[in-house]
Design brief:
By secondary structure, this protein is mostly helical. It has eleven helices and no strands.
Length: 264
């Protein structure tokens, strides 16, 4: 297989061809192979994470102060604004949390790859990206993207340009959505993965945006199943990203983690 940096250079110069229907079909076929297992894993992990966050939050605020905190929260909702001294630490905490969680989320792309190739998979494999060299690259890439996106969004919102801030944040997320696959499958560092993602997406933005929108709509269908269905439809997002990456770059079969059966 051609080295990925050479592929990116070729794409930067000549672009690439991408068929909407072929990619969608690829994503759907991949999704069928991982939907149940990924959904169950996503559901269990979300419940455990919710319990952990709630317990930590109550411990930090204190049960005696909960009523006062909830009253303050209601007043913020009424005013539709959050004071900067609360907003900034809250955003910083969310950015750090999402960055620390990103190596786990990356495990779903590995699951999609295992499903594609018929390889075995195990829950413990979800945590393999917390090992070197993946962890630092995934963490730092997510941190950099989040800081840029959130920072610009906050600045524009404080300046009265809320819609512009939201659009810029969404644009940054769209241009960088291939960053993690480029790290785990392409073995790129954080900076190179971010730059490569922007190059790739900027060559076919319309088709890729269409695929992303379709994936989001498909994922949101799960909300009609008493909201629980979202846990089983959301993994389609990972299958779509995997199919897009595979169609453009290809998956190097030599870059694989230890894999075992699809059993919890």
């Amino acid at each position: 297989m051609t080295p990925i940096k050479d592929q990116i250079a070729e794409i930067k110069t000549n672009g690439y061809q991408l068929d909407f229907g072929t990619v969608f079909e690829h994503a759907f076929e991949n999704y069928k192979k991982i939907a149940l297992y990924a959904g169950l894993l996503f559901f269990v992990f979300t419940i455990l994470l919710y319990i952990l966050i709630t317990a930590g939050f109550i411990s930090y605020i204190g049960i005696k102060n909960m009523e006062e905190f909830l009253n303050n929260l209601k007043s913020f909702q009424t005013q539709k604004t959050i004071p900067t001294n609360i907003l900034l630490p809250l955003k910083a905490g969310l950015i750090l949390f999402s960055s620390l969680l990103s190596p786990f989320i990356a495990g779903f792309y590995n699951m999609a790859d295992c499903g594609e190739k018929g390889n075995e998979f195990h829950v413990s494999t979800m945590f393999n990206y917390y090992k070197a060299p993946y962890f630092w690259n995934i963490f730092s890439a997510t941190l950099l993207i989040s800081l840029l996106s959130t920072g610009l969004s906050i600045l524009l919102e404080l300046s009265g340009f809320e819609i512009t801030g939201l659009l810029i944040s969404l644009t940054i997320s769209f241009l960088t959505f291939l960053t993690i696959p480029l790290i785990i499958f392409g073995d790129l560092n954080a900076i190179d993965a971010i730059k490569s993602s922007i190059i790739i997406i900027s060559k076919q933005p319309i088709i890729l945006l269409g695929l992303v929108i379709v994936a989001i709509i498909a994922a949101l269908i799960g909300l009609f199943g008493l909201c629980i269905g979202i846990f089983f439809t959301y993994p389609f997002m990972f299958s779509m990203t995997y199919a897009i990456y595979s169609s453009i770059i290809g998956i190097n079969s030599e870059v694989e983690l230890e894999q075992v059966d699809f059993e919890i």
